Amino acid sequence: MRARLMQATIDCLVERGWAGTTTTLVSERAGVSRGAQLHHFPSKRELVVASVQHLADQLNGDLQRRHDEAINGRGHSTRKTLGLLADHFTSAIFVASLELWVAARTDAELLEIVQPMERRWGREEHRLAVELLGVDDTHPPTRALVQGTLDMMRGFGLANTLSDDSRRRGRILTEWAELIDANARPAAPTGKTG
């Protein structure tokens, strides 16, 4: 039941935004009573935050799995990795997160909940990007390049909410991959075998 409520919440956030997402609508979409919804999530804030957090964690795990599958036996490709990151930042979960961030900007209670969560996501996304790109982020220029990459990906996600810019994005990612390969310090070998 919790999973259905959380998925219905994400769907509503993506389709209707923060203002259009109501607990009544979420309950209806999930096929559960309002009482059951209130038992699991007493407020809209708690429901939305739990939903976005849960799905973001799943998405990060999915991103890692897809990267592992993509390189299994074929070696590392910066361009493929950037494509996976771009998909991550143009997904429905990014749109739902964006709705949450915008709402938190003017809602002090929501901001108190969202800020620490966003910091944790940011650290996890950075860690994951470093791992997926196979670079050494203890090297300050490489760390800045990774952060710039993540900032660019968020920009792609924002632009994608208004129109499909996948062709332009693809061209930019190809050039950006070359820039990373030429300028980022590779990570030291870990001794792992695959």
TrEMBL record:
Residue ranges flagged as DNA-binding region: 22-41
Keywords attached to this entry: DNA-binding
Gene3D superfamilies per record: Tetracycline Repressor, domain 2
Species this chain originates from: Flexivirga aerilata
Entry annotated with the keyword DNA-binding: yes
Keyword DNA-binding: yes
A GO MF term: DNA-binding transcription factor activity
Signal sequence annotation: none
TM regions (residue ranges): none
Limits of the HTH tetR-type domain: 1-59
InterPro entries: Homeodomain-like_sf (IPR009057), HTH-type_TetR-like_transc_reg (IPR050109), HTH_TetR (IPR001647)
Descriptive protein name: TetR/AcrR family transcriptional regulator
